Amino acid sequence: MSEKMTGAQMVVTALKDQGVDTIFGYPGGAVLPIYDALFHQNSVKHVLVRHEQGAVHAAEGYARSSGKIGVVLVTSGPGATNAVTGLTDALLDSIPLVCITGQVPTHLIGSDAFQECDTVGITRHCTKHNYLVRQVEDLPRILHEAFYVAQHGRPGPVVIDIPKDVQFALGLYAGPENIEHKTYKPAFKGDLGRIDEALSWIAAAKRPIFYTGGGIINSGPEASALLRELVDLTGAPITSTLMGLGAYPASSPRWLGMLGMHGTYEANNAMHDCDLMIAIGARFDDRITGRIDAFSPGSRKIHIDIDPSSINKTVKVDLGIVGDCTAVLRDMVARWKERHLACDAAVLQKWWQEIDHWRARKSLAYRASNKVIKPQYAIQRLFELTRGRDTYISTEVGQHQMWAAQHYHFDEPNRWMTSGGLGTMGYGLPAAIGAQMAHPGSLVVDIAGEASILMNIQELSTAVQFRLPVKIFILNNQYMGMVRQWQELLHGGRYSESYSEALPDFVKLAEAYGCHGIRCADPNTLDAAILEMIETPKPVLFDCIVDREENCLPMIPSGKAHNEMILPDMETELGTAIDAAGKILV
Amino acid sequence: MNAPAAPLSPYSSAPAASKIEVHTLSVLVDNEPGVLARVVGLFSGRGYNIESLTVAEVAHAEHLSRITIVTSGTPEMIEQIVHQLERLIPIHRVTDLTLRGGSIERELAMIKVAGRGENRVEAMRLADAFRARVVDATIDSFVFELTGNAGKIDQFVELMRPIGLVEVSRTGIAAMTRGPDAI
Fold first, then answer.
1. What domains can you pick out in chain A, each with its CATH number?
2. C-alpha to C-alpha distance for A180 and A323, rounded to whole angstroms
3. Where in this chain does the entry annotate a coiled-coil region (chain A) (predicted)?
4. Is B7's CB within 8 Å of A128's CB?
5. Measured between CA atoms, how close is B53 to chain A, in angstroms?
6. Which of chain A's residues have a Cβ under 8 Å away from the Cβ of B63?
7. 3-class SS at A447?
């Protein structure tokens, strides 16, 4: 069925046909025809943000918490360039997005027209793919192709740049039926021979460990369920990256916590000493591996990933399986059962004894206080008091993010939204808005730092306008805490520009925006304050004043191996923990 | 005193000892605007090296272009380059011709030489030996057209230098596997 309509109407019709119910955007001259088309319908809801970066992060939060595709609509020039940080964030974390940008009319392209920029040129490196639509005849195909590309294979952001005259032009619309990219057909199922080989290795391993990442979450809830089944069938320990939290329940005894730079002692030592590493949907990021030449030197490595370029990129593996996590895990579970495989319980028992020995070091411990709120304590209380509720957590970037990853525990996927790959300050509040849009009845908390929250604080207006009761839980130590920690580690404690001299009064700021503000500096009243935050049925800005000098431990100093961690109970002078060779690696 | 240890970078994907190889890649792409920028941008953005690059449409009806890239790097880097290229949406197929048992490689060059008397005679004599064609001649100059592998062209240019080399224009390498099979 095809009918004649304008390009702008095609955009809105395509969104409906793709099942999109919510988009995030900001109007401007070059995109007004699409805004006009939105005005004439009720099935696609538009969320007006206050900055285009906020629109992209909100779409990411929406996508990550719901498993749907996030959609962004912004104007040309500054609208498009403001979206670049968000697009890069989505690319590095493999989040499926479609971002529609307006462009000046085709006859003005290349003339340095008002609000013109080379959007496809600028976004080429921060998208999975991008399009400049030159004529309305191409628009329906490109719209549906963009949705296909964004979600198939390794997900990612796709930009469609639409000149204003193309938005006005009349053409024939075609629906998404049978839209398939003519060349882009990524592998879905993994090679069965290799899967069988991998299973034989797992059954024979003496010290196996699963190392899982965001790919499991991106693959959908079935992947998490299958992962649980496979881990339980084998009885092996499991750790995950920052992006992978929630794919396997943190409450399980098989769960070793997060690995990597701020991972647990047991997870990192197990990674170092394992004889078989099963990496699934994880990409051996440098924050995970530490020193490559000392990374798990004695192990064979299996790597399951949908992106062939991730295999052997930084770490040479012994067995690579290209495929979607769900499809590969389904085959693994089925073949394990069919072949009646089992790990040797007595052999694994010895491995678990070693792990328990590392666990006993309690690497996430910290010195408690009843005078000042310890940031770890604040997260623990937030976790305990939100437990049992339907809770979604986003974060900004910095120490608070790592403390949240260490001390807030997730038993379900899609509950944890954080900027992993790019490390974008200002991510958490708009992401929380996106998650709250997707889950209106749930509790959504942005765990923030006082410096990060200021990067996109304007989105409080969005939360108020759309009556989104997001909670912003600021761990306020008056420092860019992670910067301060690194300056302590690497620069002799010279805290160059990392102290915030003129912070706003967050309670008054909350009130100015029409939100509720809470401040708490006393560990004895913290629980009551957190409960007040949870129970207030509107956006809340919670200024939690915490210990200014607490460091985020444990930590692998840069340039060191997994078994060379700094632990909280060591009396190491942080200033001497990293040698000259390590300092250049930050 | 202990000598300071050489910094060990955790970011390098290849050990320093790994040897650099030169590979010729054939890349079949949709002939659409911006496709070359995507390919070239991938090399510059990820720090890979391009030694030679040629591109032209090879199947008009199917809108297909063939890009031939000569690149250098460790075997691990070349493997990454191939995978990273394969990730680009408009790319149909990437073939490492070097891994496929080597390829026939040809390049076209135009070489301008100026000179009179003895030099003019010498230039003509060498051009003959290299099977270069004269495509332009004036009283004191020649433009030669020469086809061959890159080494042959290098050699001819070096011979022309003392005789009166003025300028060189080269196309870069076009390559194909031997035998009856398509890539």
1. 3-173 (3.40.50.970), 192-360 (3.40.50.1220), 375-545 (3.40.50.970)
2. 19
3. none
4. no
5. 20
6. none
7. strand
Contacts of B86 in chain A (CB under 8 A): 308-309
**pLDDT exceeding 90 applies to what percent of chain A?**
88
Could you tell me which residues come within 8 angstroms of residue A516 by beta carbon, excluding any fewer than 6 positions away? A510, A536, A538, A539, A540, A541
pLDDT at A126 over 60: yes
Q: How many CB pairs under 8 A join A and B?
A: 73
Could you count the other beta carbons within 10 Å of the beta carbon of residue B158? 10
A39-44: Cβ within 8 A, 24+ apart: A41/A12, A41/A16, A43/A16, A44/A12, A44/A15, A44/A16, A44/A20
B8: which chain A residues are within 8 Å (Cβ-Cβ)? 291, 293, 559, 581
Instruction: Please name the residues between 65 and 124 in chain A that touch chain B, using a CB distance below 8 Å.
Output: 120-121, 124
CB within 8 Å: A124 and B80 = no
Q: State which residue of chain A sits closest to B92, comparing Cα positions.
A: A183
Catalytic residue numbers of A read: 52, 114-115, 164, 482
A70 phi and psi angles, rounded to 5 deg: -85, 140
Residues of B in contact with A584 (CB under 8 A): 7
Instruction: Inform me whether the C-beta atom of residue A180 falls under 8 Å from chain B C-beta atoms.
Output: no
Residue A306's closest chain B neighbor by CA? B87
Cβ–Cβ below 8 Å for A292 and B10: yes
**B175, β-bridge pairs:** B105
What residues form DSSP beta bridges with A325?
none
Number of helices (H), then strands (E), in chain B: 4, 8
| Distances from the Cα of A412 to the Cα of A247, A248, A260, A570, angstroms | 6, 7, 21, 33
Say if A283 is an interface residue toward chain B (CB within 8 Å). Answer: no
Q: Are A95 and A155 in contact (CB under 8 A)?
A: yes
Complex prediction ipTM: 0.86
CA of A101: how far to CAs of A47, A96, A108, A127, A180, in Å? Answer: 16, 16, 16, 13, 23
pLDDT digits (tens, 9 = 90+) for A39-79: 999 999 999 999 999 999 999 999 999 999 999 999 999 99
Whole-number pLDDT of residue A560: 86
* Nearest residue of B to residue A559, measured between CA atoms: B10
Report the relative pairing of strands A129-132 and A157-163 from DSSP bridges: parallel
How many other CB atoms are there within 10 angstroms of residue A438's CB atom? 21
